[in-house]
């Protein structure tokens, strides 16, 4: 390839997953809690290698949401977590509902393969095919669904809802859109926002609790 050909070559196209990873970093993500699967592995890769996000791998999806919930309660920041579609998502329900009722500002990113053709993807569309909203709507947990053209804007909306209402929000990324060309950028610069502050415990209270455990006959 000549110098002229290199100069005229089109710039690489930013994909949806790259745009989402960049937006999450701009929103202040420093830690991500996850159990990796086919639906979120590219996102985790870009966050870790491209943005220096600390990725914490859990042994069960319920633990990933619980860890994000605990991180939020301690730091006062937005807790970020991600799981794959289908059974990966259904495994989160107990911890997700607990976080929402505790008014923890967390964002769960999950994939959705229910829109795929069962003939083309018999496992992903069959065994793993489930629209998260079917389970979340009766529980009152809000769902923000991404489209390829507005994924970053949709993500900021999910984040802002979690912050404004101090609750759990599920951000759904349909399988197949992650490698499409990125679309609209957020209308305003991404902002980490400020959720409620974590409650600070007085040192004397911590000491009293430790002494109570140390002297208890049947500690829990």
Question: What does this 3D model show about the protein?
Answer:
Helix 2 packs across helix 3, helix 2 packs parallel to helix 9 (151-165) and helix 4 (61-75) runs parallel beside helix 6. This protein is of the alpha/beta class and 220 residues long. It is globular, with a radius of gyration of 20 Å. The longest helix is centred in the N-terminal third of the chain and has 15 residues, at 61-75. The protein is built from 10 helices and 6 strands; from the N terminus they run H-H-E-H-E-H-E-H-H-E-H-H-E-H-E-H. Helix 3 (41-51) links the parallel strand 1 (31-34) and strand 2. The protein has a 6-stranded parallel sheet, sandwiched between helices.
Structural category is alpha/beta
Q: Compute the gyration radius: what is it? A: 20 Å
Q: Tell the overall outline.
A: globular
Per DSSP E runs of 2 or more residues, the count of β-strands stands at: 6
- Estimated share of beta-strand residues: 5-15%
What is the rounded distance between the termini?
Answer: 69 Å
Compute the number of helices: 10
- Enumerate the strands of the largest sheet in spatial order, edge to edge or round the barrel: 2-1-3-4-6-5
